[in-house]
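User: Please go through the entry that follows and flag anything odd:
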Amino acid sequence: NPIRESKAKRKIIRAGRRGGKTVIAATICVDKFLEGLRPLYATPTSDQLETWWFEVKRALAEPIDAGIFKKNETEHTIEREGTKNHIKGKTAWNADMLRGDYSDFLVLDEYQLMNEDTWEVVGAPMLLDNDGDAMFIYTPPSLHSRSVSKALSPQWSQIVTLSGLLSISFSMFSS
């Protein structure tokens, strides 16, 4: 999968509804967790969080059942006890919802629904001290929608669609 294999520090995934965005996010978060990192998945909707959480639990079911990892259903976390290694999912629609967390790999799913300061006020600084990576996922507006979308902004960095197309413009990440 080109998204999983990409070494880009910042990935942006644009795909339509039912395009598998949340499932690929869960898969990549599990990969990062198994590498010893601390992935943090954030989305503004509880439905998306539950989809992600279902996929993560399914992928890690065997080591959870064997007692290798400890699962917390309330906090949507799975951790390797005695270490700082854990995977976490949460709802977040603004910067304040991300405050206090730590991550090596941050996923902002349904980013078009989040407050625009979520990334620059908390997301980017969260990753600075450990040179962490980020993935932004969004659904473009439908042809029938007149809503404002970040999909139309010229500031987007890298767009990797599920079909593997790539477009790069680094202006989003320059200050």
In short: Strands lie at 10-14, 39-43, 70-72, 77-79, 86-91, 105-108, 133-138, 158-160, 166-168. The CA atoms of residues 8 and 169 lie 13 Å apart.
